[in-house]
């Protein structure tokens, strides 16, 4: 997957009190940093189809989230609570020398991104949430039931079958699906920090909520309505043909265009 990132990509290891965090970096070193937070099990390599477009105007910094699959190493202080997760992100940005960043997250990464934007608004310029889970609405019960076998008894075969079902009708990258399946089966001890659904009404930074219209994780229309009500200044758009796990690899040109338009537009409030 790393071989599919654009030429000029570098690997950075950032020490924090909770362990060493791996960053996949691309784009001008002096450009505004854009921190990317992947969905659970995806690793920071999942942004291979987005890095070049997003790195035209920004310094792309794709994180291997600590505690998840990937090349970050969990050591030192235990990472157990939402407060720990916020402290880890503070330490990560300090280690990168980034006082302020644009923040982009998908799924679980979107929950982290929104939580951090509420926790440290002074460090976030703009926020992009790709089909965010546990941010504005809960999961569909049927989605949780379908996910349970992969969570309880993960195997490569079971994870691939799950993804094939959840991404049907999209051009989701098959190599990424293989990576996700290997992460599910090979990182059995990974442990994500999961906290309460944040209250987004206090969100002050400009935000783009980009939803998958065919998301199995939740009802996209319900998420859009709740996001619009709780964050009136948010820009809310839907990619009607995509599913939750199709992001960010499927239809990446359209996804990249919408994200870039938002990040480079004059600030709206």
Write the layout of secondary structure elements.
Elements lengths: L9 E7 L2 E8 L5 E6 L13 H4 L3 E6 L9 E2 L7 H15 L4 E6 L1 H12 L4 E7 L10 H12 L3 H11 L7 H13 L20 E6 L7 H11 L4 E5 L12 H13 L5
Helix pairs in contact: 5-6
Quick check: average pLDDT? 95
Range of strand content: 15-25%
Task: Determine the N-to-C terminus distance.
Answer: 38 Å
Binned, the helix content reads 25-40%
Poorly predicted regions are: none
Could you list some keywords that capture this structure?
269 residues, alpha/beta, nine-stranded mixed sheet, 9 strands, 34% helix
Description:
It contains eight helices and nine strands. It is α/β, with parallel strands linked by helices. Strands 1, 2, 3, 4, 5, 6, 7, 8 and 9 form a nine-stranded mixed β-sheet that branches. The chain is globular, with a radius of gyration of 17 Å. The mean pLDDT is 95.
Give a quick summary of the entry.
With 269 residues, the chain is an alpha/beta fold. 34% of the residues lie in helices and 20% in strands.
């Amino acid at each position: 997957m790393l071989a599919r990132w654009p030429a000029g990509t570098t690997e950075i290891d950032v020490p924090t009190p909770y362990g060493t965090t791996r960053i996949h970096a691309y784009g001008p070193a002096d450009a505004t940093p854009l921190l990317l937070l992947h969905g659970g099990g995806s690793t920071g390599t999942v942004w291979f189809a987005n890095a070049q477009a997003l790195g035209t105007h920004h310094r792309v910094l794709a994180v291997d989230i600590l505690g998840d699959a990937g090349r970050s190493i969990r050591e030192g202080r235990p990472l157990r609570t939402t407060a720990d997760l916020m402290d880890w992100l503070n330490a990560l940005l300090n280690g990168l020398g980034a006082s302020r960043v644009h923040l982009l997250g998908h799924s679980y990464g979107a929950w982290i991104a929104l939580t951090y934007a509420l926790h440290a608004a002074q460090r976030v310029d703009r926020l992009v949430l790709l089909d965010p889970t546990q941010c504005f609405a809960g999961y569909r019960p049927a989605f949780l039931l379908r996910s349970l076998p992969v969570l309880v008894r993960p195997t490569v075969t079971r994870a691939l079958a799950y993804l094939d079902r959840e991404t049907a009708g999209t051009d989701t990258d098959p190599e990424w699906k293989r990576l996700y399946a290997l992460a599910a089966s090979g990182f059995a001890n990974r442990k994500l920090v999961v906290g309460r659904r944040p209250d987004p009404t206090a969100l002050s930074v400009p935000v783009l909520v980009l939803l998958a219209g065919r998301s199995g994780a939740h009802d996209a229309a319900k998420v859009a309505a709740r996001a619009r009500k709780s964050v009136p200044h948010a820009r809310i758009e839907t990619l009607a043909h995509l599913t939750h796990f199709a992001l960010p690899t499927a239809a990446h040109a359209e996804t990249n265009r919408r994200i870039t338009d938002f990040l480079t537009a004059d600030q709206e409030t």
